[in-house]
Structure formats: C-alpha cells, structure tokens
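Working notes for the structural subgroup meeting. M.R. asked for a predicted model of this chain before we commit to crystallization trials. I am recording the input and output together here so anyone reviewing the notebook later can reproduce the run.

Input as submitted:
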Amino acid sequence: PPPIVYTIAGSDSGGGAGIQADLHCIRSFGCHGCSAITCLTAQNSVGVTGVHAPPASFLQQQLDTLVEDLPPAAVKIGMLGTKELAITVGNFLQKLKAKHSNKKIWVVMDPVMITTSGQRLIDDEASQAMIDHIFPAVDVLTPNLYEAEALLGRKLITVQEVEQGARDLIAMGVPAVL
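Returned structure, recorded in token form:
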C-alpha cells in the first residue's frame, strides 16, 4: 500500500493552495493523502475574503478518527488559524510521535501566516502557540519571506540576513528551514 500522508491545513475554496493543493502534491508522489481541515476560507486567485475556524474539538475528532486506522508516514501542516487549533495540533503530534517512537514520522510545516498579498491570517497568540507547541515536533519548516519575517520580528533583505534568519528560526526549535 502507498505511504499515508496527512495534511492538516485550511481549505482553499479557489483550489490553488491549502488542503486541495496538498492532496494533489501528495498524490503526485504516489502517496495516499488524508486531510484534517483547520480553517475554511473564502478565496480565489486574487485574495482571501474570509476565514472560518471550526472548533478545536472538531479538528481533534478528525485527527483521532484518521489515526485509528490510517497511521501516517508523514504529516504536512499548513494554516492553523487560532491558538486553540495550534495547541491541538501540537498535542496530536506529541502523542503520535510517542505512540510510534519505533519509526520516523516526518513532519513538515508551512507556517501559513500571511498571504502573498500581505494579508495576515493568524494573530500573535496563534503564532506563539505554533512556536511553543508545534515547532518541537517539526522536521522541516518552510516559511515564505513574509512568514519568516513575522516569526522573527524583523525584515530580511540581504542574502546574509536571510541566512541569519534561517539560523535564528532553527534556534527557535526546528532542525531545518527551507
């Protein structure tokens, strides 16, 4: 059977990002994609006009149901939306890794915080919860420039600043940054 990969992310109604794009990518690598939706968005190719975050208890129910009979080989995390959702995902990853300590479960995080048009998608409490609860379980962090700047609290302009920014993100608890 193909490896199982979870995507824990927002749903993009325009189909160009989020759960929809993740599932296409997962399938292109010959894996079976499972999804747990953190947020629903109203968006198109131009921008995001609305975000709705379901209760954290429903995200927990999605994850508990999946892990019952479809244990993942890898987990990709995207948009989290709220502090409560970030804490739920962090707790899930901690339990998952503890339960399967005999095998490596890869965790990749795209910290979806800011759209390419500059719209902020999560507040500071959610960002901090992501750092505190999810970063310790992540193997690779893949922020865009705006997200890296938001996480670090400073602009990254030169190549040297970007390289130092990657080192500073690693110092925040993730082993690798792309």
